[in-house]
Amino acid sequence: MHELRHGPARPARSPADLQAGLFDPRCPDCHAPLEPTAVSEDARLDPRNVYAATKLHQEHLCFSFSRETGVP
Predict the structure, then answer these.
(1) Quick count: other Cβ atoms within 10 Å of Cβ 26?
(2) Could you give the CA distance from residue 5 to residue 35 in angstroms, rounded to a whole number?
(3) pTM of the model
(4) Which of 36, 53, 60, 71 keeps 20 to 30 A from 11, CA to CA?
(5) Rounded distance, CA 7 to CA 65, Å?
(6) Of 36, 56, 40, whose CA–CA distance to 48 is shortest?
(7) One digit per residue, pLDDT tens: the chain, 72 residues?
């Protein structure tokens, strides 16, 4: 999660920014750089790339395995 003067924002990178070599996400309203902040444990899950999505899926598989087998 990132904090900015307009409130919290979920980072997103546009294809144009990536092609221009701009990899740091910007405010969707004013395009200012975002300030990273901690994400709370109760935040909505919203994986933004393949790595994040597969990491989340791996956690779900581990919880399912644990429930089915009793392995902690």
Answers:
(1) 19
(2) 10
(3) 0.54
(4) 60
(5) 39
(6) 56
(7) 555 567 777 777 888 888 999 888 888 788 888 888 888 889 888 888 899 999 999 999 999 999 999 998
